[in-house]
């Protein structure tokens, strides 16, 4: 019950700061990536969370978070996921419990705007975990670098992380690890911020409006 209360408290705090009108270059972002046993949050589970902090377009090197997670409910990691991520069943067997990792991650994120690539996957799994442990969901604002890149570069054929890393000439290091992907997504977000500002977008609210308009 104490862990549930802490998670609820941290999520409540995440709603207290209004970021809509804050300039992008002054906004605190936390870039997040997760690793999971599969793609269905109803049957698969989180096995790792990685995150880095950014203030505007500046990555804060000393501010990172990463943890493996003991699968809850218990699941075996499929061989294809082991091969892709390098995370083995024996690695997570003694990893931190889900409640502890959620608490640590939310304490790291606080009221930051969360940045993810293909955010629906990560958000669905984070929400499934939060619902399991505390009957609540993320309250943070979320930016999806997929949507931002699609608005900025409508002529590209593909917007997967690998394709965008190649387009923006970002070195690939630690691909398919939660912290490695968070770091590379942070590098991508830094460049997307610059391009957004060049297009006249200065605040988070401006950016959301442009993304919505680009989908119409």
TrEMBL record:
SUPFAM superfamilies: Ribonuclease H-like. One of its GO terms (molecular function) is exonuclease activity. It holds the Pfam family RNase_T. Keywords: Exonuclease, Hydrolase, Nuclease. Residues 28-198 form the Exonuclease domain. It comes from the Bacteria. InterPro entries: Bluetail_dom (IPR048165), DnaQ (IPR006054), Ribonucl_H (IPR013520), RNaseH-like_sf (IPR012337), RNaseH_sf (IPR036397). SMART domains: EXOIII (SM00479). This is Exonuclease domain-containing protein. The lineage of its organism: Bacteria, Bacillati, Bacillota, Bacilli, Bacillales.
